[in-house]
Amino acid sequence: MRRHHKAYLVAIVVSLLATMTSYAQQARGYSIGDAIASFSLKNVDGRTIGPGDYQGQKGLIVIFSSNHCPFSKAYEDRVQELNRKYSAQGYPVIAIMPNDPTAYEEDSFDQMKIRASEKNFSYPYLLDDSQSVARAFGASRTPHVFVLKRSGDRFIVEYIGAIDDNPQDASGVQRRYVEEAVNSLLLGRPVVVTTTKAIGCAIKWKNM
């Protein structure tokens, strides 16, 4: 009887450890070299958009952003420039808004549409209403960037982190991390700096 009880306890412990590992992996999100899972999110123009719509591209620049965050606002023009520069070369920008809009009304879908129109965004601005995409990526801030390279029908993570090294002053930027990563990929070379620290506002998660 004791032997069966001990085996039962061991099984419970093993199950709990497996569950905790699974949760830890989900919280960590993607790592360099991982293939992302497909997703579909609503764009400000009403269309549903996801990686599957970009199979003709060489890759993607996925940026988690928001309306209310001063850091995201400071980067809007630079994100526009990234899309202008690289979409024609096969690396278009996709922006995703992951915040709980009840934390900041400015992050509501209606306000997203207004912001995209006012700033004339040249790239999709998608709502991650369930926050499942942000959790899958392991995004923690806005802005938080993931550069993906297409390999067959999959998109592989090649860079994670900040857009550049100066959120406050675009004229004072010394390192343009996203540009460096995409330029390397366009030349068929490995990305040298694969991860940097994302600087921005913490994502406002919904109460589970």
Question: Could you characterize the architecture of this molecule?
Answer:
The strands form two sheets. The chain has a seven-stranded mixed β-sheet with strand order 2-1-5-4-3-7-8, covered by helices on one side. A two-stranded antiparallel ribbon has the order 6-9. The protein is built from five helices and nine strands. It has helices at about 1-30, 70-85, 110-120, 130-135, 175-185; strands spanning about 40-45, 50, 60-65, 95, 125, 140, 145-150, 155-160, 200. The chain is α+β, with helices and mostly antiparallel strands and about 210 residues long. The chain has two domains: about 1-30; about 30-200, Glutaredoxin (3-Layer(aba) Sandwich), CATH 3.40.30. Mean pLDDT is about 90; it is low at about 5-25.
Roughly how many Å is the radius of gyration? 19 Å
Average pLDDT number: 90
CATH domain class of the largest domain: Alpha Beta
CATH superfamily of the largest domain: Glutaredoxin
Total number of helical segments? 5
The assigned CATH architecture of the largest domain is 3-Layer(aba) Sandwich
Helix share of residues? 25-40%
> Count of DSSP E strands?
9
CATH topology of the largest domain: Glutaredoxin
| Poorly predicted segments | 4-26
Number of domains: 2
Largest sheet data: 7 strands, mixed
Give the spatial strand order of the biggest sheet: 2-1-5-4-3-7-8
Topology as H/E string?
A: HEEEHEHEHEEEHE
- Structural class comes to alpha+beta
Give the overall shape: globular
The percentage of residues in β strands lies in: 15-25%
Q: Please report the distance between the alpha carbons of the first and last residues.
A: 40 Å
